[in-house]
Amino acid sequence: MLRLLEECTDYDFKQEMEVRKPKSWLKSVSAFANGVGGSLFFGITDENTVRGVENPKEVIAAISDLIKTRIDPTPIFRLIPHELDSAIVLELQVSKGQFTPYYYSADGNKIAFVRSGDQSIPAPSYILNELILKGLGQTYDAILTNERKDDYSFTYLTSKYLSMAGVRFEREDYESFGLADGDLLTRGGLLLADSNKLRQCRVFCTRWNGTDKVSEETVLADLEVSGSLLIQLDRAMAFFEDNTKRSWRKQNGDTVYESEYDYEAVKEALVNAIVHRDYNIVGAEVVLNIYNDRIEITSPGGMYSGKKVPDTVESVMESKRRNPVIADLFHRMHLMNRRGSGLANISNRTNALFGGGRHVRFRSDDEFFVVTIENARFSAKGTVVGGETAHSRKDIEELILTEMRGNPRVSVTQIGERVGLSRSTVLRAIKTMTERGELRRIGSPRNGQWEIL
User: Fold this and answer.
1) Domain 11-122 belongs to what topology?
2) Looking at the domain that runs over 392-452, which CATH code has it been given?
3) What is the pLDDT of residues 156-201, one digit of tens each?
4) Fold of 203-383
5) Which three-class secondary structure string do you get for the chain?
6) Which of 113, 138, 330, 385 is 20 to 30 Å from 161 at the Cα level?
């Protein structure tokens, strides 16, 4: 039985098929074909009152003719009559198109429409650009630029690739991975250069003192990162570690560690934001906001599939990659997977800190994708650490350096035991300080010593 509650993104109501002003409903045909598909129902008012369609055969013929002559290219559609409340309601079912954009082309106009809520609106320039690329079977990061590869450096990429993938990044890899074609870089290659000319390629990080953006006076720390996407990821994660805390407490003689956030969940959210953002959008950036009670990560561009993301995700979703060249490289470096489980991982790892429940929310529209991750150590009265000591990243590094100054030959295990940190936490901090050029190991792992630079 046909049962519709109200107009929404996937369908629209029309009291009658207007022949003299067909743009009023043809724009929805364009929008559905440019999106995930949808249906128009003729014979139902905006107030959800069934009026029915008179002479349905004539209406079907007129609809078919108007779509074929005024929508370019012609989308795939079906016309289905339904009997509802003793009246005939006509459903115009429009399929998701492969040859986007689909334009309303008449009256001297050529306009591509998209759905925004329950309305069909002209596609903004950045969405139109993406529709054009989709129709050509291309993606933003695969487009060839006029920039010569030899004019750019890729030291961070080659170093990071060796450490993460375990193999050297060879010269021929630029072309085989889609970062270059001959001497010229693709946009994906340009985004992974140590520095580039793309302004819509930055991450903004802010630590707010409170639970809302009140004023600049409540900003405790901020950071703007440009350059290679890999640099952006690492520096944004360093900012996250610097501005969040980890506590520990003794329980039955053992040290129990409690974090505000799951490190891997936050990293996964940042990777998704950087890899899947819409780089056609100029004037918007990936944003990491840290509040007392939560983290919000915002990425320009909605879901690439055009669908709306559920408020909570705890299982594998359909995965479509907006920037497959970048995504493939990140996958090779074990920074992301290609199974569509990223959002579920963020949720499940975070929820485990709380012992269950739902503590991650997702929101998407045409312009932005937002992930909100709750602080597992926060209550209405403030941040709860529940242990003897809460360590920020800077605290951890200073504790480690203090031990090294006292004994340059101290082992990683000994450092952890003396300052009450896990071995993995000590190793991660040492790796970070080494990469920043602040620390190095002289001699063998067994008989060497630490040098603080």
Assistant:
1) 3.30.950
2) 1.10.10.10
3) 999 999 999 999 999 999 999 999 999 999 999 999 999 988 877 8
4) Heat Shock Protein 90 (3.30.565)
5) CCCCCCCCCCEEEECCCCCCCCHHHHHHHHHHHHCCCEEEEECECCCCCECCCCCHHHHHHHHHHHHHHHEECCCCEEEEEEEECCEEEEEEEECCCCCCCCEEEECCEEEEEEEECCEEEECCHHHHHHHHHHHCCCCHHHCEEEEEHHHCCCHHHHHHHHHHHCCCCCCCHHHHCCCEECCEEEHHHHHCCCCCCCCCCCEEEEEECCCCCCCHHHEEEEEEECCCHHHHHHHHHHHHHHCCCEEEEEECCEEEEEECCCHHHHHHHHHHHHHHCCCCCCCCCEEEEECCCEEEEEEECCCCCCCCCCCCCCCCCCCCCCCHHHHHHHHHCCCCCCCCCHHHHHHHHHHHHHCCCCCEEEEECCCEEEEEEECCCEECCEECCCCCEEECHHHHHHHHHHHHHHCCCCCHHHHHHHHCCCHHHHHHHHHHHHHCCCEEEECCCCCCEEEEC
6) 138
